[in-house]
Design a protein that fits this description.
single chain, alpha/beta, six-stranded parallel beta sheet, binds pyrazine-2-carboxylic acid, binds zinc ion
């Protein structure tokens, strides 16, 4: 059994959003096409309280891109994004949601960020995604979405370490690229960890 994991296809990560990923919207049509090839589709949703500790605005004198320690973990500070129940946290309007069996929300604890769809960054709290997939007999996962160098990367690395055969659909992802080369380094890191990098456009066509 294989499942597709759609990572953070939310308005705030799209061009014009609060934490825009270049060409983030361009992966949505391919994400829709990919869904039709899977019996099980799940999605993650970055879902922060308004005072989240990953927001630069939560600290006097800090700006997005600054690095701090958040309860002992290294933390890059971000613009305020994906605040619970806001339009920025909603899925992109063109994303087909009818076949998404379950949405896993993350980043809900103000004291710890959560890039992976499986665990918070301290790996203390699970979202339930692993148990959900294992209960349904999933052995293989395909990961796509935003952002390649953050949430996609940590979701794929955790999937692999949890024992799922893990595929990254590279052309159905885009990255933040805070530093030039971050996306290429993230893909190499995933590959070295055992994630197989595949392309979706060749088989499914891209607009
Ligand atoms: C993400 C930065 C902060 C992501 C989420 O979805 O990759 N990046 N929160
Ligand atoms: Zn976030």
């Amino acid at each position: 059994m294989k499942a597709l994991i759609l990572v953070d296809l939310q308005n705030d990560f799209m061009p014009g959003g609060a934490l825009p990923v270049t060409e983030g919207d361009q992966v949505v049509p391919l994400a829709n096409k990919l869904q039709r090839r899977f019996d099980l589709v799940v999605a993650t949703q970055d879902w922060h309280p308004a005072n989240h500790g990953s927001f630069a605005a939560s600290y006097a004198g800090k700006k997005p891109g600054d690095a701090i320690a958040l309860n002992g973990l290294p933390q890059v500070l971000w613009p305020v994004h994906c605040v619970q129940n806001t339009q920025g946290a909603a899925f992109h309007g063109a994303l087909e949601t009818a076949r998404i069996a379950q949405v896993f929300r993350k980043g809900t604890d103000a004291g710890v960020d959560s890039y992976s769809g499986f665990f918070d960054n301290g790996r203390r709290q699970a979202t339930g995604l692993s148990d959900y997939l294992k209960a349904r007999g999933v052995e293989e996962v395909y990961v796509c979405g935003l952002a390649t160098d953050y949430c996609v990367r940590f979701t794929a690395l955790d999937a692999e370490s949890l024992g799922f055969r893990t595929r990254l659909v590279a052309d159905a992802c885009r990255g933040v690229e805070l530093k030039p080369g971050d996306v290429a380094r993230a893909i190499e890191e995933m590959r070295k960890a055992g994630v197989q990098v595949v392309q979706g456009c060749a088989a499914h066509g891209c607009p």
